[in-house]
Amino acid sequence: MHPSHIARMLASSFLFTAAFPALAQPTLPTTPDSARLAWLRANAYPIETCEPSDSVDDLAFLKEIVGDARIVALGEGTHGTREFFQMKHRITQYLAEEMGFTIFAIEASTPESAKVSDYTVRGLGDSPDDLIRGMYFWTWSTDEVAEMARWMRVFNSGGVGNETKAKHIDFTGFDMQTPDVAQGVAAAFLDAHDPDLAARALATYTESRSWTRGAQGQPSFAVATASLPGHLVAGKRIRYLGHIKTEKLKDGFAGLWFRCDGKEGQLAFDNMADRAPSDTTDWTPVEIVMDCPAETEAAVFGAIMVGEGEAWFDGVSIEIDGTKAEFEGVDLAFDGNAANPDEADAVAGFYLAGAGYEISIDRKTFRAGTGSLHMNGKPVIGPAVGGPAFIDAAKRTTEIKDAFAAKLAEYKTMPGVDAAAADWALHNADIVSQYYRMSAGEITRDECMANNTKWIMDHAPEGAKIILWAHNGHVHRRMGTQGSFLAQMYGADYRVISFATGTGRYTAGASEKTRKRFPGEWLRDHALAAPPPGSIEWHLQAIATGADGKPAMPNFVVNIRDASAADPGSAWLAGADGIVPMRSIGALEQDLQFWPETPSASFDALVYINMTTPARQLKR
After folding, report:
1. String of b and e for 392-402 (b: at least 16 CB within 10 Å)?
2. Euclidean distance between CA atoms 109 and 180, whole angstroms
């Protein structure tokens, strides 16, 4: 991959680091502000239980939060928490029974998810398990999702809450990360009604898939990433410096990188691509000097190696306006933890990634201290995202979709053609195009998911209301997310309910370090980190445990729509004090679990469940 492309990827990437490191200075508060807690309590509604049941009376407050909105997005702070999924079930149940919501759509491949309606709507089969596994995402192959599907089937057949059979709820998806089933749906329709275009489509789909199978989408460079609150560097000059050594590094470089982000995205970025060491070099001093804009709200930094070979990083430090900064919990010295054998090679405070690379502490090659950060290897073999194979596939599959769309009206006039089936087949052709356009770098996954949600709404009966299930990071309103596009499209018709927790465990794919300790156990449960002082969960936990001197309220929902920068109790939620940490864990285990957030700008309500457990995987 060309260095300039690496620069663009890092410059435009979302803040994927897991947390602000705990700072040594200034001293953080030991207890939340009483005005903040009082405001949260005044706007909180207790939840009686997370366990699904016939009764959802304790969720009546949802009418106030949702109002007349037609789209309600249910987020989640991790992709593997049982109680999050159970509460989503209960909220979905309330919205269907009491507020007339008729569509449920999940963050999973579109046609594969729609097949679940064979069980939930059409009443086919004795179990939803195989259909749920067929969505491909292990995150949804859980007892909790299967239990919700079973409730949907009973509801649709006239069960509790729907005895007159006047209501129903469909099951579908809005994602586009796998094209196989979608291309089959599109090709089958064309084969029946337009053999010439069908032959062209089948050839295009077959060739495109054969060209692009493999390791597409994997990182083609090694990277270590950490983050810090933007207020530390906003309006100041930073000097990020260190030493780098390389060995037979070809087709790339090894450098430091630093990025400043604000409300609208990237403000400043440098990864040394034009001046970084390559080939074979001895320890070379390097530095990045950057004037951070006053609007900076978060800073992200680290080390990067592009290409094949080896690189070592040592003697790293950050100066802010000429003063060396110290960050508790971030191993800038790259010395690792020699006192603990299990953690000896852990690079504290940094997120490590790079398919085809080994990244660890090297205790034999270093410039100072007891170790250095070592990156060794080469990119995985396979077509690169944004490379020629995907660009060509995007062009060809989009041409098929456009040709299909141009003849859609004609197809609908043919004898025996169902108009809805024709629309659905075209949508699947668009799913295929989206997959390759995303892989070619022409469009983002979140933009596609928003467009697919709009397609569902546009093709639903008049007055339809939809429930979305996805990660907090997709449904919130931050720029570039699915939720931001939906907020632009639907305005006040779009509501977002996020989910958070204080303590417990979660299911996720294991890191390389964990897999070494537990061979053969890629998917397992992991511990939740304690909420750091100042975080959203830190405040909510005080209410859950009664640490504010009031009665404990273990599970509750806070309506934050009325948070205001002018109100002492809620100004922090509205961003008056800058962005605050909030837990965000995806499909993989994370040591650093908290990301920057501006709560009331992103969400309308916060579901807080103090103690949570791992989601339970379906038996295979």
Report:
1. bbbbbbbebbe
2. 10
Residues 6+ apart with CB under 8 A from 268: 258, 259, 260, 290, 291, 292, 293, 296
CB 95, CB 66: distance < 8 Å: yes
SS3 assignment for 171-202: EEEEECCCCHHHHHHHHHHHHHHCHHHHHHHH
Task: Give yes or no: residues 357 and 223 share one domain.
Answer: yes
- DSSP H/E element including 608: strand 605-612
User: In this structure, are 369 and 223 located in the same domain?
Assistant: yes
Contact 63, 571 (CB under 8 A): no
Q: Please write down the long-range contacts of 449-454, taking CB distance under 8 Å and 24 or more positions apart.
A: 449/107, 449/174, 449/175, 449/176, 449/474, 449/482, 450/482, 450/483, 450/485, 450/486, 450/489, 451/485, 452/110, 452/174, 452/175, 452/176, 452/427, 453/71, 453/105, 453/174, 453/482, 453/486, 454/486, 454/489
Q: What is the pLDDT of residues 368-424, one digit of tens each?
A: 888 999 999 887 655 666 678 889 999 999 999 999 999 999 999 999 999 999 999
Q: What share of the chain is helix, strand, coil (3-state, %, to 5)?
A: 35, 25, 40
DSSP state of 563: -
> Would 620 be classed as within a structural domain?
no
Which of 128-142, 179-193, 254-268, 297-311 is least confident?
254-268
Distance CA 209, CA 180 (A): 8
Give the model's pLDDT for residue 120.
Answer: 97
Which residue segment(s) compose the domain that 472 sits in? 34-175+465-612
**Whether residue 65 sits in one domain with residue 156:** yes
- If one counts the domains in the chain, the total is 3
- What pTM was estimated for this model as a whole? 0.75
At 530, is the secondary structure helix, strand, or coil?
coil
Close Cβ partners of 195 (under 8 Å, ≥ 6 residues apart): none
Please choose, from the candidates 525, 534, 543, the residue with its C-alpha nearest in 3D space to the C-alpha of residue 585.
Answer: 525
Per the structure block, which two tokens stand in for 379? 């990119």
Per-residue pLDDT reduced to its tens digit, 150-180: 999 999 999 988 888 889 999 999 999 989 8
Nearest partner of 432 among 73, 184, 116, judged by Cα: 184
CA distance 428 to 437: 14
One-letter amino acid of 296: T
Q: How far apart are CA 173 and CA 163, in angstroms?
A: 27
536 lies in some domain: yes
Here the CATH number for the domain that contains residue 373 is: 2.60.120
Q: Per residue in 227-247, is it b (16+ CB within 10 Å) or e — as a string?
A: bbbbebbbebebbbbbbbbbe
Tell me whether residue 188 is in a domain. Answer: yes
Same-domain pairing of 12 and 46:
no
Q: Same structural domain for residues 525 and 409?
A: no
Q: What is the dihedral of CA 38, 43, 49, 52, to 10 degrees?
A: -160
Phi-psi group of 427: left, alpha or beta (phi > 0 → left; psi -120 to 50 → alpha; rest → beta): alpha
Measured between alpha carbons, how far is 343 from 103 in angstroms, rounded to an integer? 47
| Three-state secondary-structure class, residue 62 | helix
617 lies in a domain?
no
Longest CA–CA separation in the chain, Å? 79
